[in-house]
Design a protein that fits this description.
338 residues; Rossmann fold; seven-stranded parallel sheet; 12 helices; alpha/beta
Length: 338
């Protein structure tokens, strides 16, 4: 069986890579020795005849996951979409609109609707994306909310030695979000205060969990002596997430991988999708907007969460079982089309 997998192709972004790996792991678990060929999401925009020929050689086209409904990737080429012959499945995708960014244009939305009309099955990662599609004109009953596939990325044991102390992981978003500079000072101050408190009063070891190479331009601004940077391939990075007692991150997938590893997490939001993830897993208190962050708010939230670590680990495990069932049911539906 041949599967064409269309997805975001940012190999520098650990979140994007994690999604791709997780989707393909899930597909291989379902379809055995399927031959999966990668295509960048840009093929839906460029309308290149050779891409169309290659895609039409597949038995199945899977699009996603990740934030493909994003102004960077749209508008899709409707003519190209309509010429796709294999069954098209949209798998756990998301809508992205960062704080301060404009809404999608009419032709962007029209092309997204056309893609969803072409699809035999549609699943999205959160209710925020589903509401966006419904407003655009995609029928409600056609859209399944299954969660982010990266939750189920397999873990690989890392050889990196970690402290036996309380372990706090932190992460900033410096991967291209233009709004970071607007909130940078209070974000840095807030993270610095958390580091100071947990090192001084809880004898914690602080780790910086790298998701994008550009973060090296900013994480050093956090006042945190002895900060250790962890920058591993996604499966090993997720293993490290599972060894933390708490993760405080900005990148969406710092929260997703933490949740997937059953580690309590606080997400400092830069996008509406961050809030949607917190709502989807049922813990809106684990989100702090970068617009509203203060030193005391982040510290107080971190103390509350770390003091209830077992509660969150247990609840995360329960929620993951339900999300896993959603994924498995959707994967079984795909089987009917191949």
């Amino acid at each position: 069986m041949k599967i064409a997998h269309i997805h975001v192709w940012d190999k520098k972004n650990k979140g994007d890579v994690s999604i791709v790996m997780a989707v393909q792991q899930l597909l291989k678990n379902t379809f055995g020795k399927a031959e999966i060929t990668d295509f960048p999401v840009e093929v839906l925009k460029k309308n290149i005849s050779q891409d169309l020929k290659d895609l039409n050689k597949a038995d199945l086209i899977v699009i996603g996951g990740g934030g493909i409904y994003y102004s960077w990737f749209t508008p899709f080429n409707i003519e190209f979409i309509n010429k796709l012959n294999p069954p098209v499945v949209i798998f756990g995708v998301g809508y992205i609109r960062e704080y301060g960014s404009p809404s999608l244009r009419k032709n962007d939305i029209k092309s997204i609707v056309s893609l969803n009309r072409k699809a035999v099955l549609i699943s999205v990662r959160d209710n925020y994306t589903k509401k966006f599609l419904i407003r655009a004109g995609v029928p409600n009953k056609k859209i399944a909310v299954i969660g982010d596939p990266a939750i189920f990325l397999k873990e690989k044991k890392s050889k990196i030695g970690l402290s036996s102390k309380l372990k706090i992981g932190i992460n900033l978003n410096y991967s291209g979000w233009m709004g970071f500079g607007k909130y940078e000072k209070k974000i840095i101050r807030s993270f610095s205060k958390v580091c100071y408190y947990f090192k001084k009063y809880r004898n914690a070891k602080i780790y910086y969990l790298m998701h994008h190479p550009d973060e090296k331009n900013v994480y050093h601004k956090i006042n945190c002596n002895g900060l250790k940077v962890i920058n591993l391939p996604p499966m090993e990075q997720k293993f490290i997430y599972g060894k933390m007692n708490l993760v405080i991150g900005m990148m969406l997938h710092s929260a997703v991988l933490s949740f997937g590893a059953n580690t309590p997490e606080i997400n400092v939001a830069y996008d509406l999708r961050n809030r949607s993830f917190a709502d989807f897993i049922g813990f809106p208190e684990l989100l702090i907007s970068s617009k509203k962050i203060t030193e005391n708010l982040l510290l107080e939230t971190a103390i509350k969460v770390i003091n209830n670590e077992k509660f969150y680990r247990d609840k995360f495990k329960e929620k993951k079982e339900k999300i896993s069932l959603n994924h498995q049911q959707f994967l079984q539906k795909i089987k009917k089309y191949v």
